[in-house]
Specification:
Length: 333
């Protein structure tokens, strides 16, 4: 079923026009019984070439829009595609069940694993129900409860990241959103089971990091990972949210940038046109990457896993001390 006009990004419009033409010809072929397969094949080849041209020159802002695409697969879509079976678990045993954060037990290629992840919504009603994928303190406490349970029973953890940011409402602040995220960072650093992170769409701020400390961090090709959304950055630096495209470029938020900076370990390719065009293929590619990393991590002891994870994140970022700066200045004359 072709996407509605509201689901088409600006740079996708030439592709959508070609696809609409192809669909019209296919419909007429079915109605009139005339063989137009050659004409359809030519148009499909032209569409594929056009897609290759467009997607070979996407800007960081274009990739941001793709990461937020309304038809992009969300965490539960991948859970259904990746796991043979799964049972969702609820509640943080302290306050309530946060619908923006999901988690549970699953069978992954014959292995028993624990999964956690943020879940967005498709329509307005579901988005409100899921709080647009922005988890509250109880969501992060639920995720930690499940991860500690996984450690108790020796099960690997797979975390799916897809959130614009953690919830910043008065209620979330009053219940300790900062403390909940900080505790997750500390506790995840020391867990003695394999942890694999998969950034599916938006990896936004502390909301992403709250379930983002892993031995292996994978990122889909058109996902983004950033300390702040481009609009927020533009509002702070330029006092103009309209400069979000410039901010997206400056923030280095793409998967390619994150890999080059050492923030992630692997970029998982998406089908031509993005994950929303072929969720099944995307899930198969992601599954292959997770399995490869899981096989490697499962050969390590609990202490080795915790040490590797801790050192991995300690090594991120580069800085100079004042004496080192003084030496550089002296050498420069």
């Amino acid at each position: 079923m072709p996407p509605s006009a509201s689901n088409i990004l600006d740079f996708e419009k030439p592709i959508a026009e070609l696809e609409a033409e192809i669909e019209d010809i296919k419909r007429l072929t079915a109605e009139q019984g005339v063989d137009r397969s050659e004409e359809i094949a030519i148009l499909e080849q032209h569409r594929d070439r056009l897609m290759e041209q467009i997607f070979s020159r996407l800007t960081p802002w274009d990739k941001t829009l793709l990461a937020r695409h309304p038809r992009r697969p969300y965490t539960l879509d991948y859970v259904r595609l990746l796991f043979d079976d799964y049972t969702e678990l609820h509640g943080d045993r302290l306050f309530t069940d946060d619908k923006a954060m999901i988690g549970g037990l699953g069978t992954f290629d014959g292995r028993q694993v624990m999964f956690v992840g943020q879940q967005k919504g498709r329509d307005l009603k579901e988005r409100q129900f899921r709080n647009f994928g922005s988890a509250k303190p109880e969501g992060y406490r639920k995720a930690l409860r499940l991860m500690k349970l996984a450690e108790k029973f020796g099960r690997p953890i797979i975390a799916f990241v897809d959130t614009p940011a953690a919830d910043c409402s008065v209620g979330a602040e009053s219940r300790g959103i900062s403390e909940a995220i900080a505790r997750n960072l500390m506790e995840m650093s020391a867990l003695k089971v394999p942890i694999i992170i998969a950034i599916l769409g938006e990896g936004g701020s502390g909301g992403a990091l709250g379930i983002g400390v892993g031995n292996s961090v994978l990122m889909l090709e058109y996902a983004i990972y950033s300390v702040i959304p481009p609009e927020g950055c533009a509002a702070i630096l330029w006092r103009d949210p309209a400069k979000a495209p410039e901010a997206a470029a400056a923030l280095r938020i793409t998967a390619e940038d994150a890999l080059r900076l050492g923030v992630i370990d692997e970029v998982v390719p998406e089908p031509l046109g993005g994950a929303h065009r072929n969720p099944d293929l995307t899930a198969r590619t992601l599954k292959t990457a997770i399995l490869r990393n899981l096989d490697e991590l499962c050969s390590m002891t609990g202490d080795e896993l915790a040490a590797q994870r801790y050192q991995k994140f300690r090594a991120m970022g580069q800085f100079l001390t004042m004496p080192e700066l003084a030496e550089i200045d002296a050498a420069a004359g």
